[in-house]
């Protein structure tokens, strides 16, 4: 199905070819999860080019492809590609121009021109990424399982929260719990911040910052199952909360809920952004709101669509994305609440199950 969709879009004329360089897109299209690979599609053949380190793995995973082991010592990648294009009588070459440097492509193009006598080259951007926005049931199930691992890992570390524990200590324990529960790797570098540092949307946990009474605890993290990633944020307060903290937390929660309630097939991303923004702007903390509402999630942590003020993408069934409004006040603290959601025939499904009511630990 994936290969057919790509072919319908790329092969609009005879004697054309498509070259895929992105590791993520190679995995998506072929199932191969290694590195040092290139996909070459011609009208009648699917080729996966790799070297001796990955050829056995590729043959087992990429069953719809002819796997070719390149002799790196004696043949360049460009020469091998040119050989295949010449054999299949290709006259036009499409390529992923957003996943290769200008210098690398110029070298490859020159060799193809010389060996295969091809003069027409067309750079393509985002062609596979647009397919990846809508997930299959298997992809959704993998993200759902990754979200469940994250839910359980968070629940497992909450009893460890105590005065004097460091950001690094708690984040290390969270990452250990995810691995123990079956996560293949970290979805991304864990963000776990205390107090005023919670105002940094992508701050790095510190070994020297210790938890104090009244601190925010902002936790943004995710697990990975079958290569698919989850992404969740929860914000807690330790020991005691003042009225400003409670007010900001409720504002962010209301903003997220308003966006969640509005999600339906066909709604544009920018409309969801406005709905969430309207709640934040109406509060006294509006100028501290985050700029974007969310992003697609899958084989990559951040993938299309990106939910923001310029997102014209209309949500489709099977689209998995985050909803994560936030308020970040420098030198004071911040609140973000984030869930992974999927639009299904039965409506919206929130993949994370961790509570979102304000919890004072």
Succession of helices and strands: HEHEEHEHEHEHHHEEEEEHHEEEEEEE
Query: In terms of quaternary structure, what is this?
Result: single chain
What is the CATH homologous superfamily assignment of the largest domain? Creatinase/methionine aminopeptidase superfamily
Count of individual helical segments: 10
Rg for CA atoms: 24 Å
Protein name: Aminopeptidase P family protein
GO molecular function: aminopeptidase activity
Keywords: Aminopeptidase, Hydrolase, Protease
Pfam families: Creatinase_N, Peptidase_M24
3D structure, described in words:
The protein has 361 residues and is of the alpha+beta class. Helices cover 35% and strands 22% of the residues. The chain is built from ten helices and 18 strands. The chain has helices spanning 2-10, 23-30, 55-61, 77-87, 102-116, 127-132, 137-157, 167-180, 243-262, 269-282; strands at residues 16-20, 38-42, 46-50, 66-69, 92-96, 120-124, 191-194, 216-221, 224-225, 228-229, 232-237, 294-296, 303-307, 320-323, 326-329, 333-336, 339-344, 347-350. The strands form six sheets. A six-stranded mixed beta sheet has the order 4-3-2-1-5-6, sandwiched between helices. A three-stranded antiparallel beta sheet has the order 7-8-11, with helices on one face. A three-stranded antiparallel beta sheet has the order 14-17-18. A hairpin with a 2-residue loop joins strand 17 and strand 18. Helix 4 packs across helix 5 (102-116) and helix 9 runs antiparallel to helix 10. It is elongated, with a radius of gyration of 24 Å. The protein starts with a helix and ends in an 11-residue tail after the last strand. The relative contact order is 0.11.
């Amino acid at each position: 199905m994936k290969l057919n969709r790509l072919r319908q879009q790329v092969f609009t004329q005879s004697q054309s070819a498509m070259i895929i360089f992105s590791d993520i897109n190679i995995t998506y299209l072929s199932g191969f999860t290694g590195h040092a690979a290139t996909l070459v599609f011609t009208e009648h053949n699917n080729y996966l080019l790799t070297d001796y380190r990955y050829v056995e793995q590729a043959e087992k995973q990429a069953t719809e492809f002819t796997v070719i082991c390149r002799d790196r010592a004696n043949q360049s990648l460009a020469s091998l590609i040119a050989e295949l294009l010449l054999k299949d009588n290709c006259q036009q070459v499409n390529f992923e121009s957003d996943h290769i440097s200008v210098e690398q492509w110029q070298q490859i193009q020159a060799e193809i021109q010389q060996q295969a006598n091809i003069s027409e080259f067309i750079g393509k951007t985002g062609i596979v990424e647009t397919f990846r926005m809508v997930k299959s049931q298997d992809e959704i199930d993998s993200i759902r399982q990754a979200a469940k691992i994250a839910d359980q890992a968070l629940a497992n570390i909450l009893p460890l929260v105590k005065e004097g524990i460091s950001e690094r200590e708690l984040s290390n324990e969270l990452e250990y719990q995810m691995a123990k529960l079956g996560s293949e790797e970290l979805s991304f570098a864990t963000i776990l911040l205390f107090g005023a540092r919670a105002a940094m949307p992508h701050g790095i946990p510190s070994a020297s910052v210790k938890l104090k009474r009244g601190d925010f605890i902002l936790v943004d993290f995710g697990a990975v199952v079958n290569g698919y990633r989850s992404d969740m944020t929860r914000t807690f307060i330790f020991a005691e909360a003042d009225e400003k903290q409670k007010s900001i937390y409720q504002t962010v929660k209301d903003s997220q809920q308003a966006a969640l309630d509005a999600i339906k097939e066909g709604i544009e991303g920018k409309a969801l952004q406005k709905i969430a923004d309207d709640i934040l702007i109406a509060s006294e903390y509006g100028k501290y709101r985050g700029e974007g509402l969310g992003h697609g999630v899958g084989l990559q942590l951040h993938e299309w669509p990106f939910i923001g003020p310029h997102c014209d993408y209309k949500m489709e069934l099977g689209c998995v994305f985050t909803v994560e409004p936030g308020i970040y006040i420098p030198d004071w603290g911040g609140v973000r609440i984030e869930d992974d959601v999927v639009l299904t025939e039965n409506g919206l499904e929130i993949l994370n199950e961790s509570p979102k009511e304000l919890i004072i630990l």
